[in-house]
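Reading a protein record of the kind used here takes only a little practice. Think of the row as the fold of the chain written in a discrete alphabet. With that in mind, consider the following protein and its fold in token form:
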Amino acid sequence: MTAVKEAPDEAPVLHVVDGELVVAGQGGALAGLAAFLIEPGRAAWRHRDLIAAILRRELNERFKGSMAGWVWAVVAPLLSLATYTVAFSGVVTLPNQVETASRFDYALFIFGGLIAYSFFSEMAFRGPSLLHEYAHFIKQTMFPAEMLPIISTLRATVYVLIGLVVMLAAQIVLTGTIHWTLSLLPLWLIPFLAFLIGMTWFLSALGAFTRDAAYLMMTLAPILMFATPVFWSIDGFSPNVRLLMYLNPLTGFIEIIRHLTVLGTLPRLPVVAWTLLVSLVSFYFGFWFFRRQRDRIADVI
């Protein structure tokens, strides 16, 4: 009599995720957490050619049909800065009660806050309708929709960098000074990018299911500008009130960019730590939310 060897009761379940073979349950909870943390970076690297191609296409179409073209990307922030310079050139005290070293510092102080807020508002306005713009690709092909918020944020980053260059050039021309703390600007930009990408993941997934998300952001974003220290500083308030103001995640980012560009000082360490935490939470929560809704998105847009 021949013995029959039985197959194990629990055979490993294999999945193919983004072209890679994955064994379900392999590695435990820590391995799963580590895979989740590195997945956004791995996916972006895997689709880097697609990201670059769509990014070039979006940048080329921004001023398509315009005779001046990219000149407008420089003229717009230049006119804004000129307006604030004329309007506030006589102010000798900044909103944080620091005396200005130059009569142009107040305009630069406001413009620095506007750069950060404009970056946020562009993503807030576009995020809810982002997937609808590429609905044809998402419906008809195996299109990595989670790359669209990254592409959209990088597109907006180009105009933010142009605004920063205009601001720094004006600072050199008008005040004759430049601060060493400018070398730390990438340490502000990278967390801000992570925050905005996470926010756009969340808004784009939410906007795929309801158009109300777009109307909500169009209503809230202009109001939020006056609840954010763009034209004023939180230093004029009591410590308890200042803590409440940091519940607005933009407060820390605006404070940091002003310290690095206009004031030439290092931002407070608790503020830096808080903005890093906000960035990480926004980035990974947005990615988690988008990934949970990814399979349903093609059916609803």
User: Anything to note?
Assistant: The two ends are 62 Å apart (CA to CA).
